[in-house]
Design a protein that fits this description.
Amino acid/polyamine transporter I; 19 helices; transmembrane; transmembrane helix; globular; APC_superfamily; AA/rel_permease1
């Protein structure tokens, strides 16, 4: 038997940090709701990130004989139909992630080269983004082993930059600087007079939940960790609290150097870092270029990884027969080439549509796509939470080495999080300051068309499977935990019968 327990707690800790932390989340949420984002980040860590990670750990331990991807987790309690739908949602969400990531390549490159921002029409950003994504798709289909090094380099520098900023801001406060914004608790309140309404805050809360997301990408390593489930839970809680603390403190300290009104989604990180550098007598221009290098490296690394990884995971995880053999065929680098280009074809119109509603403002474009990315990002974890609720309600006797408390606690946590996700998804999908046509076409239309098409495609697969092999179709739709529960019940009945016979 191959012993896969080859990573320690510190390695897992760093993997969680790399998967979850991104300084852009600090910038975006400070721009949107100011220092109110600071306590919101910490609360999201406590009430969402840590419980959700424990749920993932429970699903992994339930599916300990498999690689325990998203498909297997949801299939445990909801069956193959909703497992496919959830796997599709993860790939679908990634399409909108590209829309928020691609324009930043141009923004960061300009700051790196010129040391300042320039006015670029939104349509030009879309054309540039399509070109970059075309090249990224082409490279990813040919293998790009060096991309992992770029990603690690950029992520490490980004985290280092955030920590240096936090230390610098604390030193500045101790040195007597007058903060640009109110740092007190009173300054973090929801003030309708500032134009920030409760509905707008709930929409931004979707951004914050997305910002502390990523646990599903780490849960699959439980079987590789020395110490098993207990070590996993301990490490993930420490990592989650660390991320929440960095996000919270970083967002709060943004107000030390710059006023909320002085920063935008495009220039926030550059204005903030330049102001911090100049406070300590360093060149703001040089700092901007260095920050441009860091952010560009992190963005390009992430773009290349996410161009190939999700499409590979999606097309290789779902059952054979849903898509044609040519679509899922892998090349010598293990990448489904046709699937990658299908992804490119879908992303192009998704890049173009928001430019029609953004006018000439890069900030408006980024706000639209960030908002939609956050809204769609809630769908996959929400489906996992529904699957967990069903697991605890109907299949709680299924054997697993780790459980998040008793049945009542599990049901209560899942119920609360599903309700929270529902409210935040609706608020993010229907932002109050966005044109109605854009909301209906992009936010609502995109979700309805793509997810409706996914379910229709799966139903087509099930009809064919029923015609060819009814028993295989039944097994596909049956929750895997149900089969385990039936086996447990049969074993219990056999033991009872044996005991009665012996008496």
């Amino acid at each position: 038997m191959n012993d896969r327990k080859n990573i320690g707690g510190f390695i897992l800790f760093t993997m969680v940090i790399a998967a979850v932390f991104n300084f852009r989340n600090v910038i975006n949420n400070y721009v949107s709701i100011g220092t109110l984002a600071a306590p919101a980040f910490f609360v999201a860590t406590i009430v969402y990130f840590i419980p959700f990670t424990l749920i993932i750990a429970e699903f992994v331990s339930l599916n300990r004989n498999s690689e325990s991807g998203v498909y297997q987790w949801v299939r445990s309690s909801l069956g193959g139909r909703w497992a496919f739908f959830t796997a599709f949602c993860y790939w679908f969400v990634n399409l909108f992630y590209f829309i928020s990531l691609l324009p930043l390549v141009l923004v960061y490159a300009v700051y790196m080269i010129l040391g300042r921002g320039v006015q670029v029409e939104a349509w030009a950003i879309a054309v540039f983004s399509i070109t970059v994504f075309f090249l990224a798709t082409w490279v990813s289909t040919r293998g790009a082993k060096w991309i992992g090094k770029v990603t690690s380099f950029g992520a490490t520098l980004m985290l280092g930059m955030a920590l240096i900023f936090i230390v610098g801001a604390v030193v500045a406060l101790l040195g007597g600087i007058t903060p640009a914004n109110d740092l007190s608790i009173a300054g973090m309140k929801l003030d309708p007079g500032s134009g920030l309404t409760t509905w707008a805050f709930l929409g931004t809360l979707a951004w914050i939940i997305q910002g502390v997301g990523g646990a599903e990408s780490i849960g699959v390593y439980l079987n590789d960790l020395r110490g098993g489930a207990k070590a996993f839970v301990r490490t993930i809680v420490i990592a989650g609290l660390t991320i929440g603390l960095v996000y919270t403190v970083g967002t709060w300290l943004m107000a030390v150097f710059v006023d909320k009104s002085e920063v935008g989604y495009e220039n926030g990180v550059f204005v903030t870092m330049a102001a911090a550098a100049e406070h300590f007598g360093m060149s703001g221009d040089v700092t901007i270029r260095i920050v441009g290098v860091i952010m560009l490296a992190a963005t390009l690394g992430g773009l290349m990884i996410w161009t190939s990884a999700p499409v590979k995971i999606f097309f290789s995880e779902i059952p054979q027969g849903i898509f044609g053999p040519k679509v899922v065929a892998l090349n010598e680098q293990g990448v489904p080439v046709r699937g990658a280009w299908i992804q490119f074809a879908i992303v192009v119109p998704l890049l173009v549509i928001p430019t029609l509603g953004a006018g000439s403002s890069i900030d408006a474009l980024l706000k639209i796509v960030i908002n939609m990315t956050a809204a769609t990002a809630l769908l996959p974890p929400a489906l996992i939470l529904v699957a967990y609720w069903k697991l605890r309600k109907s299949y709680d006797s299924a054997s697993r080495s780790f459980m998040m408390g008793r049945r009542g606690l599990g049901l209560g946590v899942a119920t609360f999080l599903v309700l929270l996700f529902t409210v935040c998804f609706v608020a993010a999908t229907f932002p109050e300051d966005q044109a109605l046509w854009l909301t209906l076409v992009y936010n609502v239309g995109g979700v309805v068309v793509f997810l409706g098409a996914a379910l229709a495609w799966y139903e087509r697969y099930i009809r064919r499977l029923r015609a060819e092999d009814p028993e295989a179709a039944r097994r596909e739709l049956m929750p895997s935990a149900h089969e385990q529960s039936e086996r447990n019940a049969q074993e219990d009945a056999a033991l009872l019968a044996a005991g009665t016979g012996g008496a």
